[in-house]
Amino acid sequence: MDLPSFLWLWKIAAWAMGLAIAAYLLQAVTGFSFLIFRPSIQPQWLRPLHVVTGVAIALLILVLLAIGIVGTLGHYGSLGHSSHLFSGLTVVELVFLSAWSAAQIRTRPWARSVHLIANVLLCAGLVWASITGWEVVQKYL
Asked: Which domain covers residue 63, as residue numbers?
C-alpha cells in the first residue's frame, strides 16, 4: 500500500493518540485530587469522570492497537519492524493493568499502589510510544 491509502489510518491514529493523552492528563488531575482531598469534600462528579475517562483511554488504546496491527500487516505482512511495537504493547499492558487494579481498589488495599505505579509508568510509556510512533510516521513521509 502506498502513502495515500494509509493516510486515513494515520489520521485516526493521530486523533486516538491525542485523545488518549488528553484523557490521561484528565485522569492524572482527577486522580491526584483523590489523593489530596478527603472523600467528604470531593465533588460527586469527580469519581464518575475519572471512571469514564479511564474507560475512554482503554478504548482508545484498543483502537490504536488495532490500527498498529492492521497498518503494519498491511504494509509489511508481519509485525515487529520497529521499536514502536514494543512501546505500544507496553502501553496496552499498562492501561489494562491500571484498569484491572482500579477495579480491585475497593476490596483489596494493595490495588491502589499497583494502580498508582501503573499510571506513573503509563506516563513514560505514552511518551515512549509517541516518540517511536513519530519515528514510524517519518519513515513514510
From this structure: 3-140
